[in-house]
C-alpha cells in the first residue's frame, strides 16, 4: 500500500474504535490531523498519542480538558505512558484549547 | 518578642484607624511605624499615593520604612491575601519576630464591590494569624460610607486612637460567623434586563462556549479568558457539589460582562471559600479560589432558592 492510510478521516461514532494501517508516517500524520480537526470542529473532547521510534514518546493533548474528561485523561496517561524527554514528560499542546486546574494537577501528579 | 501593645500577643493583631484629618492619621501611624523601625521589625506602608506622600513627608528621611504600591496589592482580595502571605512568610523566614503594616484600601473598594473587601477584612483575621503581624487599616471617616464603617468595626477586633490607645471593637464578629452571613450586594443594573444567555444544567464546555459567544469582541481578550475560566469552575462546582437546577445567565454591557451561576444547594461549607485555598486541590477546593482570582468582582448569595455566585469581568464599578 503506497502512501495510504486505511480508514480515513471520518467523524467518530459513540464508542467507536478505529484501527488504521499505514506505510508512510507523513500520510498517517495528515490523516490523523484531519481526523482530529473534524473532531474539534464538532466540539468533541479528544487526545492523541504518537509514538516515535526514537527514545522519546510524545503525548498530544487537544480540545478541552475539564472535569468531564478527568477519568479519561487519567486512563490515557496510564495507557500511553509517554517516556520522559530529558527526565520530563513532554506534551504537545498546540491544539489544546482549554485545560482546567484539575487536569493540570493530574498532569503534575503524572509527571512525578 | 513582640513589642509595644502587641507584647505577649500571638498571631495577627488587626487594628482599624478612623481618622478625619491628616493630623489624626499621622498621630496614629507615625509613632507606630517609628517604633517598628526602632525595634528592627519589618515596617511596611501600603497606602494610596496621597497618604503615602503624606507619610513620607512626616517620617525622617531614610528611616527604614518600606513603602509598597498599595494600588497593585489591592486589585482583588484573594490576590491580596496571597501577596501578603508570601511577603509575611518571607519576613518570618528571615527571622522577623514582628512585622508592622499600615495599609488602606483604594477608595474604589468602598463602593459597589465593598462586599468582597468586607469579607477580605474579616478573613484576614484568620488568614494572617500564622504570622506575628500587627497592622493598622486606615479609614477616612469623611469619605467612607456609614455601612462600610459598620463592617470595619465588625471585622477589626480593635481600633487605634491618636493618643496611642488601642480600643476593643464592641461589634467585632469572629470571621467564622461573619463570613457565613449574606453581605448586602447592590444588583448590577444589567441584571434588570433579560440575560443574553440562559442555560439550564449546562456542561462546563457549553458554559465556556456561551461566554465566548456572548462577548462578541467587546472586552479585552484576557478579561474574557479569565471569565471563561471562572464560569467553567463555578459551573463545574455547581454540577458537582450543588443541587439542581443549575443555571448560568450572562449579561453583556458596554464595559463588562456579568455571569450568575446558581444552584439549589447551600453553597460551600467552608466560610473562607474563594478567599483561601481549601486543601491541596486533590479533592476540590481550588475552583472558587481560582474564580476569585479571575474576576474583578465576585459576590455570593444564599437564599431560600439556593446559592448564587455573580461574576464580573471588565469594569465592576457600576453606578448603584
Q: What report would you give on this structure?
A:
The complex is a heterodimer of chains A (112) and B (320). Chain A is of the alpha+beta class. Chain A has two domains: 1-52, no CATH class; 58-112, no CATH class. Helix content of chain A is 35%, strand content 21%. Chain A is built from three helices and three strands, in the order H-E-E-H-E-H. Chain A has helices at residues 25-41, 70-80, 101-111; strands at residues 46-51, 57-65, 91-99. Chain A has a three-stranded mixed sheet, with helices on both faces. In chain A, strand 2 (57-65), helix 2 and strand 3 (91-99) form a beta-alpha-beta unit. With 320 residues, chain B is of the alpha/beta class. Helix content of chain B is 37%, strand content 21%. In chain B, the strands form two sheets. Chain B has a seven-stranded mixed sheet, sandwiched between helices. Chain B is elongated and about 60 Å long. The mean pLDDT of chain B is 94. The A-B interface holds A 43, 45, 64, 66-68, 98, 100-102, 105 and B 203-205, 208-209, 228-229, 232-233, 236, 240, 281-282, 286-287, 290.
Top keywords for this entry?
heterodimer, A: 112 residues, alpha+beta, three-stranded mixed sheet, 35% helix, B: 320 residues, alpha/beta, seven-stranded mixed sheet, 10 helices
List the helices and strands and how they pair.
The complex is a heterodimer of chains A (112) and B (320).
Chain A: H1 25-41, E1 46-51, E2 57-65, H2 70-80, E3 91-99, H3 101-111
Parallel strand pairs in A: 2-3
Antiparallel strand pairs in A: 1-2
Chain B: E1 13-19, H1 22-38, E2 43-46, H2 49-58, E3 66-67, H3 70-73, H4 77-93, E4 99-103, H5 114-127, E5 133-140, H6 146-155, E6 158-160, E7 166-168, H7 175-178, E8 197-200, H8 204-215, H9 221-241, E9 247-252, E10 256-263, H10 287-294, E11 297-303, E12 306-314
Helix pairs in contact in B: 1-2, 4-5, 5-6, 8-9, 9-10
Amino acid at each position: 500500500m503506497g502512501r495510504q492510510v486505511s480508514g480515513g478521516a471520518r467523524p467518530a461514532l459513540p464508542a467507536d474504535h478505529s484501527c488504521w494501517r499505514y506505510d508512510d508516517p507523513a500520510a498517517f500524520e495528515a490523516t490523523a490531523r484531519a481526523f482530529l480537526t473534524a473532531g474539534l470542529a464538532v466540539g468533541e473532547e479528544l487526545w492523541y498519542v504518537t509514538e516515535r521510534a526514537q527514545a522519546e514518546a510524545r503525548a498530544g493533548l487537544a480540545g478541552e480538558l475539564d472535569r468531564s474528561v478527568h477519568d479519561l485523561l487519567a486512563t490515557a496517561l496510564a495507557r500511553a505512558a509517554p517516556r520522559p524527554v530529558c527526565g520530563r514528560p513532554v506534551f504537545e499542546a498546540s491544539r489544546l484549547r482549554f485545560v482546567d486546574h484539575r487536569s493540570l494537577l493530574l498532569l503534575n501528579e503524572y509527571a512525578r | 518578642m513582640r513589642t509595644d501593645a502587641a507584647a505577649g500577643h500571638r498571631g495577627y493583631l488587626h487594628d482599624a484607624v478612623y481618622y478625619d484629618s491628616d493630623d489624626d492619621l499621622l498621630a496614629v501611624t507615625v509613632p507606630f511605624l517609628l517604633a517598628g523601625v526602632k525595634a528592627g521589625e519589618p515596617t511596611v506602608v501600603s497606602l494610596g499615593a496621597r497618604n503615602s506622600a503624606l507619610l513620607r513627608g512626616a517620617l525622617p528621611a531614610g528611616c527604614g520604612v518600606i513603602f509598597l504600591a498599595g494600588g497593585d496589592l489591592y486589585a482583588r482580595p484573594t490576590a491580596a491575601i496571597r501577596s501578603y502571605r508570601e511577603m509575611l512568610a518571607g519576613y518570618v523566614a528571615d527571622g522577623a519576630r514582628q512585622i508592622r503594616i499600615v495599609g488602606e484600601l483604594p477608595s474604589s473598594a468602598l463602593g459597589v464591590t465593598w462586599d468582597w473587601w468586607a469579607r477580605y477584612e474579616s478573613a484576614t483575621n484568620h488568614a494572617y494569624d500564622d504570622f506575628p503581624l500587627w497592622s493598622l487599616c486606615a479609614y477616612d471617616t469623611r469619605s467612607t460610607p456609614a455601612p462600610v464603617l459598620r463592617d470595619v468595626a465588625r471585622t477589626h477586633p480593635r481600633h487605634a486612637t491618636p493618643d496611642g490607645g488601642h480600643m476593643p471593637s464592641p461589634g467585632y464578629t469572629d470571621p467564622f460567623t461573619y463570613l457565613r452571613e449574606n453581605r448586602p450586594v447592590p444588583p448590577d443594573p444589567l441584571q434588570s434586563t433579560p440575560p443574553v444567555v440562559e442555560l439550564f444544567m449546562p456542561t462546563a464546555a457549553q458554559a465556556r462556549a456561551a461566554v465566548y459567544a456572548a462577548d462578541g469582541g467587546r472586552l479585552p481578550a484576557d478579561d474574557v479568558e479569565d471569565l471563561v475560566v471562572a464560569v467553567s469552575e463555578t459551573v463545574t462546582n455547581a454540577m458537582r457539589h450543588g443541587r439542581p437546577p443549575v443555571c448560568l445567565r450572562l449579561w453583556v454591557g458596554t464595559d463588562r460582562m456579568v455571569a450568575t451561576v446558581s444552584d439549589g444547594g447551600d453553597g460551600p461549607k467552608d466560610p473562607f471559600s474563594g478567599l483561601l485555598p481549601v486543601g491541596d486541590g486533590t479533592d476540590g477546593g481550588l475552583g472558587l479560589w481560582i474564580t476569585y482570582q479571575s474576576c474583578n468582582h465576585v459576590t455570593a448569595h444564599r437564599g431560600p432558592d439556593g446559592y448564587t455566585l455573580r461574576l464580573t469581568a471588565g469594569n465592576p464599578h457600576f453606578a448603584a
